[in-house]
Amino acid sequence: MSEAELPIELDRHSPSPLAAQVASQLRAAILSGVLQPNHTLPATRRLAMELGISRGVIVRAFEQLSGEGFLVSNGAGGTRVAVRPDINSRPHENRREIRASPRPDVIDLTPGRPSGSPFQDRQWRSAWKSAIADQGNVQLPPALGTSALREAVADHLAVSRGLVVDADDIIITGGTSDALQLVVAMLRNRAPQPRILMEDPGYPTARRVMTAAGAHMVTVPVDENGLKSSQLAALRDIPDAVLVTPSHQYPLGGRMAVQERLELLKWAEQHGVLVLEDDYDSEFRHSRMPLPAVASLPGGAEVVLLGTFSKNLSPWLRCGYLVVRGDAGQRLKATRQALDTPVAGVLQSAIAHYIQEGGLARHITRARREYGHRRSLLIDRLGSRRDLEVSALDGGLHAVVRFHHPDATDVAARALEQGVRVIPLAGYYADRTPENGLVLGYGAVTDLRLAKALGILSDLIRPPM
Ligand SMILES: Cc1ncc(COP(=O)(O)O)c(C=O)c1O
After folding, report:
1. Which of these, 15, 125, 218, 241, could form a disulfide with 274 (CB 3.0-4.6 Å)?
2. Which pLDDT score is estimated for 98?
3. What pLDDT score does 86 carry?
4. pLDDT tens-digit map of 439-455
């Protein structure tokens, strides 16, 4: 696209300020894929002249979008569209891949993609056969989920997470994104625009989804071990809810200490704040035992645990669950009843069979072994480099590599030219200056392809001579 074709039309009679109009149209163009990652935007002065407005308006719009992680400023090199995991990989991925027909041999290290092996599993196919046989039902699936899947999830949580819950405490969701929309819908019954605090860096999709659902997102800067009680104590505006990733800070990969978890609960109880515990990959611990879920700790705070089948099975399924209790639990159930379920009955039935017949537990054991190998490979190839800091390796299916030089966005662009897709760490930051680094997902690649990709990346990340 030439610079002159930037899709911006201003309405000078609109009550919306011009900077907000420019920002909103550029954001829409990025989200719809019209503006692609790494596309360089025209210089602010030139764009201002073309649109017949002051340069300050463009500067404010660019700053706003940089703050949201949609744009990256390269100083004298101009401003580019950021490479962001949520925009690049979801939800526009399929359409763009068809259009751009990428090289089929690209080694894709986009995080969040698990091993594809359950779909080749005999037990998985047999679970689907049983699910199809269950299809005598012609009514709608229950809004809170089928009792078979709610019971299976409760059993699974007891074994895999040491979390003792009743099937009645479970709501089946269409994955974490759906769960977050449900939470915001529930909170909006009391506050039209609930304030939700989240970690920075954090999960960009959560931020996007909750904003789209009507929440006002605020962030707190965190290190790899997540939110600290001192930060909570210093907050002047108390949010309605706080979203945390205590088992595996996303994306930096540390974990919240037990004392901090208890302090979080104390603060939440004192101020009536709902705690949202995103427990997305705690089944995959490679070196240390998982800590108890915040939802299992004592205290009077209201905690909702968000679980997903996206990591331990596949994001292709769009299925997950909430563990809910207390008053917030009742209100979430009522909201789900009102909104109805987006999760197909046949899918719930297949997952329930798979869990009950032991398929999921076996798949997790297998996948854990696979991820363990790849993690060792990563440590082997990059761990000895003094100029790199490799982290987030305790668990999950991604690692973070931080370095001072060169610029990580350039490394990602050059890696793609050489057939390796990685995501810059910058895309996970919302309101603060990002650290320079890359996030490497190793769930869905073979060891051989990972080794090749690491060789290419290791050569590209070289400090200046
Ligand atoms: C931090 C975090 N939470 C949750 C999820 C799962 O989201 P969903 O269940 O919507 O696929 C992901 C997936 O990438 C994630 O990174």
Report:
1. 241
2. 34
3. 58
4. 999 999 999 999 999 99
* Same domain for 142 and 50: no
Task: Using alpha carbons, select from 328, 343, 355 the residue that is nearest to residue 144.
Answer: 343
User: If you average pLDDT over residues 73-81, what whole number do you get?
Assistant: 81
Range of the domain at 10: 3-82
Mean pLDDT of the chain: 89
Stretch 129-142: mean pLDDT: 86
Q: What is the mean pLDDT of residues 157-163?
A: 91
- Give the pLDDT confidence score for residue 221 in this predicted structure: 97
Q: How far apart are CA 26 and CA 58, in angstroms?
A: 11
- Whether 163 and 144 share a structural domain: yes
- Rounded CA separation 159/456 (Å): 40
140/278 same-domain check: yes
Verify that 227 and 296 share a domain, yes or no. Answer: yes
- Residue 397 domain flag: yes
Please name the residue whose Cα sits nearest to atom 13 of ligand 1: 112
Q: What is the CATH number of the domain that holds 36?
A: 1.10.10.10
Residue 218 lies in a domain: yes
The pair of structure tokens assigned to 309 is 């089948």
Looking at the fold, whether 447 and 387 belong to one and the same domain comes out as yes
For ligand 1, whether the C-beta of 371 sits within 6 Å is no
How far away, in angstroms, is 356 Cα from ligand 1 center? 24
Residue 465: inside a domain: no
Q: Residue 97 pLDDT > 50, yes or no?
A: no
- For the residues 68-78, what does the mean pLDDT come to? 78
For residues 132 and 128, what is the distance between their CA atoms, to the nearest angstrom?
6
What is the 422 CA–ligand 1 centroid distance (Å)? 18
Given 339, 358, 377, the domain boundary residue is 358
Q: Is residue 316 part of a domain?
A: yes
Q: Decide: 112 in ligand 1 pocket, CB within 6 A.
A: yes
Total structural domains within the chain: 3
Of the candidates 206, 189, 195, the one whose C-alpha atom is nearest the C-alpha of residue 86 is 206
Phi, psi of 438 (to 5 degrees): -130, 150
Write down the residue that tokens 């060792």 correspond to: 376
Same domain, 276 and 399: no
Distance from the CA of 245 to the center of ligand 1, in angstroms? 11
**Residue 340 Cα to ligand 1 middle (Å):** 22
The answer to whether residues 38 and 408 touch, using CB atoms and an 8 Å cutoff, is no
